[in-house]
Amino acid sequence: MPITILGIESSCDDTSASVIQDGVMLSNVIASQAVHEAYGGVVPELASRAHQQNIVPVVSEAIKRAGIKKSELNAIAFTRGPGLLGSLLVGTSFAKGLAASLKVPMIEVNHLQAHVLAHFIKESPDDEHAPLFPFLCLLVSGGNSQIIKVNAYNNMEVIGQTIDDAAGEAFDKCAKVMGLGYPGGPVVNRLANEGNSKAFTFSKPHIAGYDYSFSGLKTSFLYTLRDRLKEDPDFIEKNKRDLCASLQATVIDILMNKLRKASKDLGIKEVAVAGGVSANSGLRDAFLDHARRYGWKVHIPKFSFTTDNAAMVAITGYYKYRDQDFCPMDAAPFSRVTI
Ligand code: KG4
């Protein structure tokens, strides 16, 4: 009998549902919320309302596209956290209702673990690209920057993480002060491709171990803008490409330095990247460069699996189902949880 899992993701501003059967993705439907663009960031209350509107059609569409009947589902996996509480509540409550009506178990999924396990999603039965255990995963998103040692599907250790801002926040906040809109990461990436990454120098942190810090970079970026704007009010407009290229290069340098150190110290050359910032073309190039220079076997996700999606929730649910790792019906969402 195949194992068929429905995954539901609602932790931030994407409502998504996916069906995975024996590790193979049958559908992955994502409704992104454009409502936040006008505000320069995600507005939690608007996000939960949009999830409420989207969740029924998104789940129905995922089941339809998968070509299965609801009665074939073995379990409902849902993101329990971390994320926005109101948003998580919509997905969690829906999962409970559906699981109760179908009389199937529920599986809680940690959003961060799901980003890591996205590397195990198969798009066809003979799709064999998954990393081998143990591997290192650089998880970089709008809210997290972590180096994770992945020992098994259900065994992950965070060996380094940001002590302040996340890498995505560095992109988003610097983009915001340059008036580039939200989310800033993709815009910075696009402009960076046309600029000189050596034009400006921003400060890099000096902290022990594998931890990250991005707030110093942000401050030094702001100071550069402040000083140069005094001399030339058009400084940003004239230099935005070089500013973006230098910012992006600094973020990537900070990320790769610690990852290289972890790989060397632990003797692990199987290295993956996950999360929204892994869409960054400079970071992807840096991974390919490290593969050539240090003999790493790198794993870079498809663009569609870098941002929030339910396929990563469903695949995590699939592996937890194999361990019969279910959660009680009264499971409540958490805004903050670590791996
Ligand atoms: O994982 P994710 O979709 O969601 C949350 O963390 O909630 O990550 C979103 C982050 C944002 O900070 C966004 O600016 C960043 O990923 N991002 C990028 C790129 N695409 C998205 N950062 C740099 N370059 C990109 N191409």
From TrEMBL:
Cofactor note: Binds 1 Fe(2+) ion per subunit.
Record's catalysed reaction(s): L-threonylcarbamoyladenylate + adenosine(37) in tRNA = N(6)-L-threonylcarbamoyladenosine(37) in tRNA + AMP + H(+)
Pfam name, any one: TsaD
Keyword Flavoprotein listed: no
Catalytic class of the enzyme: transferase
Cofactor: Fe(2+)
Gene Ontology MF term list: iron ion binding; tRNA N(6)-L-threonylcarbamoyladenine synthase activity
Domain named Gcp-like: residues: 25-314
Main location: cytoplasm
Entry's localization field: Cytoplasm
Binding positions (Fe cation): H111, H115, D308
Keyword set includes Nucleotide-binding: no
Segments traversing the membrane: none
EC numbers on record: 2.3.1.234
Sequence positions that bind substrate: L139, V140, S141, G142, G143, D172, G185, N280
One cellular component (GO) term of this entry: cytoplasm
Swiss-Prot/TrEMBL GO biological process terms: tRNA threonylcarbamoyladenosine modification
Domain of life where this protein originates: Bacteria
Function: Required for the formation of a threonylcarbamoyl group on adenosine at position 37 (t(6)A37) in tRNAs that read codons beginning with adenine. Is involved in the transfer of the threonylcarbamoyl moiety of threonylcarbamoyl-AMP (TC-AMP) to the N6 group of A37, together with TsaE and TsaB. TsaD likely plays a direct catalytic role in this reaction.
Protein name: tRNA N6-adenosine threonylcarbamoyltransferase
Organism: Candidatus Parabacteroides intestinigallinarum
Source lineage: Bacteria, Pseudomonadati, Bacteroidota, Bacteroidia, Bacteroidales
